[in-house]
């Protein structure tokens, strides 16, 4: 039996689905509380407790330092507030939520951590999911930065509730796995709620040429919710689940099971940008702990930088479907040889000396043949088999690129529910 066939889809009981949804809700709530505290403390992490690992574009990645000696949990300043110390390394328990991933309505997460005082966050509470599952020798990782796009772009780009969307997204983010499988779909997007999903997944990944294959059983939760002030935010959670006995380990195939928890919170930063906050950890099982924590995992976290571009790729796929269906199923792409007398965008004559040697190609969406200057080439993921995606360069005219970018992300997501 191959590793890819080792696990099969399962049917979860109603109780299992409810417990999974509750755990996802709790981790999102914990991360939201830490994010709010991070903002309240001036978006600063104490250098004495956090070590900078990597910077990519506007994204910074940090990890907790190894504890060298015990230190007071809090220190008062002259103004009566608390200094951060390693507050963000702790696991918040003051966060609570109303609603659930199992609910059919839009829900909100609220945090009782209303002040910027770090003593509201307890590191040892039994309610904290992260505190219960993370080994003490494994560091927490925090990443934060600002990227162009909207909250809905982040939610749409991260959405991967089918194996096709999963492969396409991860191939675009350059975060591919050796094998993947969806074990159970607890909640999938609808036309009315197109960003929300909760899926039980399994994947394998090799972290190095000398390392044994790793596998992971996890839930992925995605959607848009509201914080305690009623402000929308996007969340994406990847979180290991190990309490379902029907999902066996693969030690007999020399596969090491990994535990991971990574939660992204994306909020509006300004009119054209969002601020992303991520907190998580990965336990690679045996050995390679430092390599994974310092290099492999931060690189995985940083792939989220391109999540908005994933949303644009999905918009282009939607636009191709829309325009081709509108043109009729019998309509075929125009060949580059049937170039018009003038470019329909810039009116450049096709008979010009320069244009005689340049290829004029049809737009993959509207199928209009335009000059090379009025085209944009985008690399989209195309499914070539049930288990393989192939990157294909596709040409779009400037009009269609603008139309895709400016299209309502919610409308596109709603109309794309049945595409994949």
Automatic annotation (TrEMBL):
<dbReference type="InterPro" id="IPR052727">
    <property type="entry name" value="Rab4/Rab5_effector"/>
</dbReference>
<feature type="compositionally biased region" description="Polar residues">
    <location>
        <begin position="72"/>
        <end position="102"/>
    </location>
</feature>
<protein>
    <recommendedName>
        <fullName>FYVE-type domain-containing protein</fullName>
    </recommendedName>
</protein>
<feature type="region of interest" description="Disordered">
    <location>
        <begin position="61"/>
        <end position="129"/>
    </location>
</feature>
<dbReference type="InterPro" id="IPR023393">
    <property type="entry name" value="START-like_dom_sf"/>
</dbReference>
<feature type="compositionally biased region" description="Low complexity">
    <location>
        <begin position="103"/>
        <end position="128"/>
    </location>
</feature>
């Amino acid at each position: 039996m191959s590793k890819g066939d080792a696990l099969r889809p399962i049917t979860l009981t109603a109780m299992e689905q409810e417990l999974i949804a509750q755990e996802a809700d709790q981790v999102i709530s914990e991360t939201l509380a830490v994010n709010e505290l991070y903002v309240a403390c001036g978006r600063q992490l104490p250098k004495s407790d956090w070590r900078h690992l990597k910077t990519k574009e506007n994204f910074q990645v940090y990890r907790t330092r190894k504890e060298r000696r015990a230190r007071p949990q809090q220190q008062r300043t002259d103004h009566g507030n608390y200094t951060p110390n390693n507050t963000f390394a702790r696991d918040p328990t003051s966060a609570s939520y109303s609603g659930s991933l199992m609910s059919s309505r839009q829900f909100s997460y609220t945090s009782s951590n209303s002040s910027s005082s770090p003593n509201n966050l307890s590191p040892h509470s039994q309610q904290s999911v992260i505190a219960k599952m993370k080994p003490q020798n494994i560091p927490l990782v925090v990443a934060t930065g600002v990227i162009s796009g909207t909250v809905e772009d982040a939610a749409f780009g991260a959405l991967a509730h089918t194996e096709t969307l999963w492969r396409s997204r991860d191939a675009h983010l350059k975060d591919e796995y050796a094998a993947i499988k969806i074990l159970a779909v607890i909640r999938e997007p609808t036309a009315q709620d197109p960003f929300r999903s909760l899926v039980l997944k399994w994947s394998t990944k090799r972290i190095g040429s000398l390392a044994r294959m790793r596998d992971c059983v996890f839930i992925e939760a995605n959607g848009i919710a509201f914080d305690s002030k009623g402000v929308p935010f996007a969340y994406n959670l990847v979180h290991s689940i190990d309490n379902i006995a029907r999902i066996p380990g693969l030690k007999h195939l020399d596969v090491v099971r990994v535990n991971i928890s990574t939660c992204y919170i994306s909020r509006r930063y300004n009119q054209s940008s969002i601020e992303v906050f991520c907190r998580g950890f990965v336990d690679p099982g045996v050995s390679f702990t430092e390599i994974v924590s310092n290099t492999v995992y931060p690189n995985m976290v940083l792939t989220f930088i391109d999540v908005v571009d994933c949303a644009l790729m999905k918009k282009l796929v939607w636009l191709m479907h829309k325009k081709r269906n509108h043109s009729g199923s019998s309509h075929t792409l125009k060949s580059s040889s049937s170039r018009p007398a003038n470019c329909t965008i810039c009116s450049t004559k096709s008979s010009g000396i320069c244009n005689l040697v340049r290829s004029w190609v049809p737009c993959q969406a509207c199928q209009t043949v335009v000059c090379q200057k009025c085209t944009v080439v985008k690399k989209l993921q195309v499914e070539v088999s049930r288990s393989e995606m192939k990157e294909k360069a596709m040409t779009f005219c400037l009009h269609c690129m603008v139309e895709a970018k400016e299209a309502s992300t919610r409308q596109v997501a709603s109309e794309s529910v049945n595409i994949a």
